Recover the amino acids of this structure.
């Protein structure tokens, strides 16, 4: 007798039946009622856990605003296997923010859920497109995480975060990458004393070495920073910084 897995059965169901199942999942899920649930916790729960099963499930879930309204974390994928299409990202962001109060704070994560093709040449473009979309809403972000393969895919801190962070509520900024493929360029920005008191609300940062070395003047203005972690700092940069 041939065995059929539960997954195979679910994948073969008509969309109408899947919608009924998803509706029950939605009714039975518990919304996060604390300020910052972990990313891993978010990905394990509805609707992100089901959206990750198959692109068709993701598309089906995105048809229903109720599944996403009220979420306090927006997660976007930039890997080559399951990237978040920019139109889907716009839909997700609209669902989360359109009915929220102006003072509503949310968390943003740009990640790779699959590492099947780490040397994806389109990674940088996917990140840029998402950052262009998110830039107007950075003022409403509480935490911002970007986890990519190559440091060259990381967006410019001063381009996307400089002015916005002065009035935003971001308290945690993380730039994570597997490899440092940036040039060992060192910033010679002058220290702007006049803007030193303007700093942001950021209290913790995780930065790759390239971002750290290229944004020294910007970092000096983060007067509320309590924790700074630096990864992939090249030997040349370490000699300079010491």
């Amino acid at each position: 007798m041939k065995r059929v897995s539960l997954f195979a059965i679910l994948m073969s169901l008509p969309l109408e039946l899947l919608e009924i199942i998803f509706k029950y999942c939605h009714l039975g899920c518990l919304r996060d009622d604390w300020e910052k649930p972990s990313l891993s916790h978010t990905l394990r729960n509805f609707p992100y856990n089901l959206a990750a099963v198959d692109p068709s499930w993701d598309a089906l879930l995105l048809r229903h605003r109720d599944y996403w309204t009220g979420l306090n974390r927006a997660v976007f994928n930039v890997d080559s296997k399951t990237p978040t299409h920019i139109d889907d990202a716009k839909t997700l962001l609209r669902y989360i923010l359109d009915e929220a109060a102006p003072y509503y704070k949310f968390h943003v994560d740009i990640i790779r859920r699959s590492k099947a093709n780490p040397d994806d040449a389109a990674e940088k473009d996917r990140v840029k497109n998402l950052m262009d979309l998110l830039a107007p809403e950075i003022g409403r972000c509480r935490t911002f995480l970007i986890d990519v393969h190559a440091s060259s895919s990381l967006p410019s801190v001063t381009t996307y975060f400089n002015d916005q962070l002065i009035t935003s509520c971001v308290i945690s900024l993380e730039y994570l990458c597997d490899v440092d493929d940036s040039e060992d360029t060192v910033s010679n920005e002058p220290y702007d004393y006049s803007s030193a008191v303007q700093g942001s609300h950021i209290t913790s940062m995780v930065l790759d070495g390239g971002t750290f070395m290229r944004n020294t003047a910007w970092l000096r203005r983060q007067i509320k920073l309590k924790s700074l972690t630096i990864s992939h700092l090249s030997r040349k940069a370490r000699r300079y910084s010491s």
Summary: The CA atoms of residues 28 and 46 lie 9 Å apart. The mean pLDDT is 83. The chain has one domain: 68-241.
